[in-house]
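User: Okay, second chain of the day. Same drill as before: sequence in, structure tokens out.
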Amino acid sequence: MAEVLGVFDTATKSVDGQLTLAPNTVAWAVNDSLEEPHYYQQRVAPDVSFIGQWTPRATVGQTAGVEYENNVGPGVSGWTVSNNVSASNYLGNGGTHTEPGYAYVVQGIWQRTMDVQAGEQSVFSVHCNSHGCGNWNSGYDLFELDSSAGSDSVSFQPTTSTLHMNLRGTNYQFSPQAFTAGTINAGTVNATTLNGTVGAAQLPLFGASGTTHSPGAVPDPGATAGTARYLREDGTWSVPAGSTGGGQTGSGLPSGVAPIAGATADYDFLQGSGSVLTDISGNGNSGTLGSGAAAPQWIPNGLSFTALTQSVSLPASLNGSQGWIFSVYVNPLTQVALASNQYSMILASTLGPSGLNLLYQDLGLQGSAFSPSSYSGGSAQSSCTTLVAGFHVFGYILGVSGTSTDHFYIDGNECTRGGGTSAGFQTSGNLVLGSSPSGSFNGSGFYGNMYRAVAFPTLNAAQMKLYSQQLTSDAASRGVPLVPALAPQPAPSLFAIGDSITFGIGVTTPWPSLLNLTNQQPYVINNYGIPGAKARRDGWFRS
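Assistant: Same drill. Structure tokens below.
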């Protein structure tokens, strides 16, 4: 292949005449080669000044550049680098050329790459690129920063006025609508509105009113005309008992609590009177108090069981509940109570021992110590080894009959248990709170106060923890003492607890009465004589 450099003109006998070409009518054939057109290339550049010095250089300031003096006004631009080639010559604008690399390059070692005095209007005026400000490819990087992880960037999108930062793959964005970031660390945040889910514990703005309470945020009570409400520390709003608006009257106790979502039945024991224990879950599983002497007594903050015949009958629809949580105060051991309450229970069955019975006593100690346990299917199934008294939240999660075990919880924490597999749910009859009406359990029941009882179709350990804390907060808001209160004695006292040192109940001269301690202040002897009671110390029991 040859390149035509010139043509001999026969008429003028000279070179560089015109060359006339005939049309190319030859058809393309398979494997014909196609030559890429040749473009004339040439390097044209301004002068470069090479400045070198071998002798030591003085520290006196020295510069190179352009200095304007005398009359300098609006028409002067100090230094301009301009690419006056039309944008249509370049890729992306209809052309075929690639854009030149850099308009300004600084290389080498310098303390500062640029030293500028701020302009009277601006330091930098950044205009849109060759695509304009309103196209999909109008965005550009303001800074591209090398890092040990690669390259970070700060970019701007003029179509939305959005400043975007990408730092090690994490994106941050400033726009007219919002600042978007995964994590924001700030000493002080001044905000008018916070959107999204914000937990009360994340905004500790409301101080705790007692040592057992926690700080929290204040929710919006909503607009309910004619109703005076107050904020409870469990995050709910309540109407003061005995008040229909216009202020707090009566006992000052809440007239209701927030039901727990997903519960089969939720009893708050705040009806105050009547024979119905209302189910506040909305499922209609209300209970019925026993009649006459079998009826527990309403107290301002719950329901008090003072006799072993007292009970509340629950509907049979609760027989299949897997989880139960009870907020209760267990009366301390007394001679009369323990003498007949062989099976201390919170939830009993009309089927007696063959049904489901949730107890609060250690089955191995026969009523002389309190801890969660279960008795169903005609035998004791399992019991917890942690002993308790006073106020607690007892939790029970039933296992599958013959397959898995029952699980017991005290204040949301699972306790070590012993025993076999679960007997499962009760399939007939119905359940009762307090006294069992049938079989060998007849005459056993509950001594103490109930403040909340909740049944669930299913329940797991995490939910048990959460709901137990909620029930504890609910009881505290009603003024229930969560820890035992000290009982000052009017005189030095000697307490004889178990019956093995009294030789039985009701003897004429119990052994403690024969004591005669010398060198002591006058003291009072208290003979409890509780059958089977044991004092526990350092892991040992002594009766």
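The CA atoms of residues 196 and 202 lie 13 Å apart.

User: Thanks, on to the next one.
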